[in-house]
Amino acid sequence: MPNKIKVLFLCTGNSCRSQMAEGWARHLKSDQLEAWSAGIETHGLNPRAVQVMAEVGVDISGHESQNIRDLLDIPFDYVVTVCGHAHETCPIFPGQAKVVHVGFDDPPKMAQECGTEEEQLNCYRRVRDEIRTFIERLPEALMGQGEG
Hints:
Radius of gyration: 15 Å
Oligomer: single chain
Helix content: 25-40%
CATH class: Alpha Beta
Largest sheet: 4 strands, parallel
Structural class: alpha/beta
CATH architecture: 3-Layer(aba) Sandwich
Organism: Syntrophotalea carbinolica (strain DSM 2380 / NBRC 103641 / GraBd1) (Pelobacter carbinolicus)
Keywords: Arsenical resistance
Number of helices: 5
Number of strands: 4
Order of helices and strands: EHEHEHEHH
InterPro entries: Ptyr_pPase, Ptyr_pPase_sf
Distance between the termini: 27 Å
Protein name: Arsenate reductase and protein tyrosine phosphatase
Strand content: 5-15%
């Protein structure tokens, strides 16, 4: 069996978007991908991200917020930055990892503009669904992309 493609989803705090991407990749593409997530910093797991992923049958409640420094020895094929800050501050990876930027809106920031709890959760749901659409196109969506 060929080796699976090793993908790291990188965000600022590894609390929401990168966690959702890792959860979707493990749920939908575990036959093709080995998925990790990390942050430039660690902010802890966002409870609303856990909640909206659980709504669609993906359990990320056991995930932990990881710092990118702890994963630098893994020979990733791709590093997918899911927010602008992570893309701008992405460290150089040893080996042949290709860095691909696929930005998604920040649910906690969007939720600050909303009134009710349901409206706030809808911000998370929208980004969750956008991330799923991206993950469904993997690994093909990564082929031929990258910055190094």
